[in-house]
Structures are given as structure tokens and as C-alpha cells.
Amino acid sequence: MTQRIAGSLLVLTLFLIAGCGQELQKENEALKAQIKTAEEENVSLKGKLQSLEAEKSTLSTTVEGLQKQVAELEKGLEAAKKAAPAAKVPPAKSPATKPK
After folding, report:
1. Which pairs with CB-CB distance under 8 Å and at least 24 residues apart come from 44-53?
2. Rounded CA gap, 1 and 37, in Å?
């Protein structure tokens, strides 16, 4: 009788372990799939990051060039402002003499 109970407990334990093992295996496969998806997203994001960094570099160079152009135009404008008043000053009028 004791052997029969022990055998039954052993069989019951094996069924429980087998059932849990299948659940764990399914969960493990689902986690592996999530990891694969996350790794693919990571690779994609790294590619996008490299592309954005290259674009940032290009835009930085463009901005620097535009800033230099603005500085040059401002210098030209200042020079034009200084030259303009000197050119616009009318010649000094001599006092008109009245005929006597």
C-alpha cells in the first residue's frame, strides 16, 4: 500500500512538473521572441541615430556658413550706412547776395 501511494505521488509529481515545464517553455519562447523584436528595433534605431547625426553635422556646417554670410552682410550694411550720409550731404550753399 505504501509503495502504491509513493508511486502515485511520484506519477502525480511528474505530471505537475511536465505541465509546468511546458508552460515555462512557452513563456521562454515568448520572451525569446520579444528579445528578438527588441534587438531588431535597437538595430533600426541605431541606424536612424547615425543618419540623424550625419544630418546634424551637415546642418551645423550650413548654419555656420549662413552665420558668416550674415556677418559679412552686416559689415557691408554698416559700411554702406557710413558712406551714404557723406554722399547725401548737399554742398554748402554760399549766402546769396542781394542786388543793390
Report:
1. none
2. 54
Question: Band of the pLDDT at 100, cuts 50, 70, 90?
Answer: low
The helix (H) or strand (E) run that includes residue 54 is: helix 2-88
Residue 69 in this model has a pLDDT that exceeds 60: yes
Distance CA 17, CA 23 (A): 10
Return the exposure string of 11-48: e unless at least 16 CB atoms fall within 10 Å of the residue's CB, then b. Answer: eeeeeeeeeeeeeeeeeeeeeeeeeeeeeeeeeeeeee
Residues 21/26/28/29 CA torsion (nearest 10 deg):
140
The identity of residue 56, as a single letter, is K
In 3-state terms, what secondary structure has residue 95?
coil
